[in-house]
Amino acid sequence: MELLQKKAIEVLNKNWKGNFSIPCANLYPFQWFWDSGLIAIGFAHFDMPKAEKEIETLLDAQWENGFIPHIIFHTETDTYFPGADFHLSNLHPQASKKYKSTGMTQPPVTGFVLEELYKISEDKKATLEFIKRNIDQVYFNHEYFYHQRDPKNEGLVYIYHNWESGTDNSPIWDDIWSTMNPPEYTFERRDTTHVDPSERPSKREYDHYLHIIEIAKKYHYNDEKIMELSPFLVQDPLFNAMLIKSNESLIKLYKLIGGHDAKIKQLQLWQNKSIRSFNDKLFDERLGVYVHYDLRNEKSLNYISSSSFSPLFAGIPDKKRAESMIKIMMDKFGREDQYLCASFDPSSERFNPKKYWRGPVWINLNWMLYRGLVQYGYKDIAERVKKDSIEIIEKNGFYEYFDSRKKVHAEENAGYGGHDFSWSAALLIDFIN
Ligand code: DGY
Questions:
Q1: Taking Cα atoms as reference points, which of 228, 239, 100, 98 lies closest to residue 162?
Q2: How many Cβ atoms are within 10 Å of 119's Cβ, its own excluded?
Q3: Domain Mannosylglycerate hydrolase MGH1-like glycoside hydrolase spans what residues (predicted)?
Q4: Which of 44, 265, 270, 420 could anchor a disulfide with 120, C-beta 3.0 to 4.6 Å?
C-alpha cells in the first residue's frame, strides 16, 4: 500500500502546474472545476499549500456573477478540442477578465472540499484562516445557482449541457439527443488522438455537444436565454446532491468561523427546500432510485446510473429509502463477477463497459458512494467499494475509468481513457489514509 501511495503522490506532483493541476497530460491539459476540488483532497494529505492553491486558483477564475467555469484555460495548447477560441467566454459581460474559460460549469464540489481540507488538516487554525479567506466565494457560487438556475424556485438547479453534469456521455443523454437534430459540424477532434476512440464519445455526440454551445454563445451565455432556448435543460441528481452536500459543509464551516448568521439562515432555507424537492421530484418509485428530470421536455429520464446513488453521500434519502436503493444497487451492480460500481445500469442495452460514462467504474463516484454507505451504516458494502477501487488501480494503474467486469481484468489491461489521472490518484490517497 505504501508503494501505491508513493505512486499516487508522484502522479499528483507530475500533474501539478505551479498553481493548479491538470486532470492528466495531453487529454486534459487545463484546469477542470470538479477535478480540482477532488484533487485538493488528495494533496491535503501530504502538501496542504498545494491543496489550498488549487482551490484559490479555481476561485480566482470565478465570474462577477458568481459562476465558476468548468474549464480554465491557463495555457495556449492545441492538444484539446474545443479550446478557448471555440468557447469565447468573454462574450458574457461578467466573465472573468483574467482567464479564458468555458461558459458552462460542473458539479459544485467546492463547499464539501473545504470541509474535507479542514478535517484532514493537522493545523486546523491555519486551515480555518484559509477557509475564512475563500468561503464567501463559494457561497456566492451557490447564490448564483439558486438565483439563475432554478426557474421554478423549487430548490433544484438545472444544467444546460452534458459537460456540466460531469458524466459527459451518459446513455441518459441519448433521450435528449433524440429530440435534437444538429448540423454535422466540421472539426478536428483531439481526444481521439490521445485515447482509443472506442473509449470516447462518438462524432455525432460531439455535434450535439457543440450545437448547445453555439446556442449559448449566440446569446452571450445569458442565463435567461439559455433557459428559454437550450434543448438540454436537466435537473441532475448528482449535480444537485453535490450542491446539497456543499450547502451542509458551508453551514458547518460558517458556524465554526462564527458571526455569519444571515448566510447560515439563507443556506438552511435553500437546503430545506432542495432536499424536499429532491425527494419529491427526483425519486422514481418504480425503479426505486433517484433519476434525472428533463426540464425542457417536462419528463423524468428513468434510468439507473451511478448518479442515482450519489444522494447517499449528501444524506438525502431517509433510512428506509436508502436501504431499498442499496439493495437495488447490489442486485444490479454488485454481483460477485462485477466491480462496484458501474456508471450505468449493467442490465440495460445501452450499457458499454469500455466507453467513458456508459458503463465503466469511476473512482470519484466510488469515493462518494463509499462515504454515503458509511454514513448510512453499511460498513461491509462500503468496504467492498473501497477494496474494489484499490484493486482496480493496483491491477491497471491510475486510469481515468475501469472496466466493471472482473473477468476482463484477469485477461488484459482494463483501465481506460486518460492515464496517470489526477483524481484517481488523489482519492486513492484519501481512501487509504
Ligand atoms: C472532455 O473533453 O471530455 C471533457 O470531459 C469535457 O469537460
A1: 239
A2: 12
A3: 28-424
A4: 44
The CA-atom distances, in angstroms, between 281 and each of 107, 108, 314 are 19, 20, 16
Q: Which of 34, 87, 168, 196 to mutate to test the pocket of ligand 1 (most atoms within 8 A of CB)?
A: 168
Question: Cα(427) to centroid of ligand 1, in Å?
Answer: 20
Between helices 33-44 and 110-120, what is the axis angle to 10°? 10
163 lines ligand 1 (CB under 6 A): yes
Task: Work out the pLDDT band at 1, boundaries 50, 70, 90.
Answer: confident
How many other C-beta atoms are found inside a 10 Å radius of the C-beta of residue 321?
17
Q: Report phi then psi at 100, rounded to 5.
A: -80, 145
From ligand 1's centre to the CA of 29, what distance in Å?
Answer: 11
Chain mean position to CA 397: 21
- CA dihedral 379→314→418→360, nearest 10 degrees, is 60
Active site residues: 168, 400
Which amino acid is present at 372?
A: G
**One-letter identity of residue 350:** R
Pocket test of ligand 1: the residue of 24, 26, 28, 196 to mutate, having most ligand atoms within 8 Å of its CB, is: 28
**Structural domains in the chain plus CATH codes:** 2-432 (1.50.10.10)
- Convert the pLDDT of each residue in 268-281 to its tens digit: 999 999 999 999 99
Alpha carbons 371 and 381: distance in angstroms, whole number:
11
Ligand 1 within 6 A of 391 CB? no
The helix (H) or strand (E) run that includes residue 32 is strand 31-32
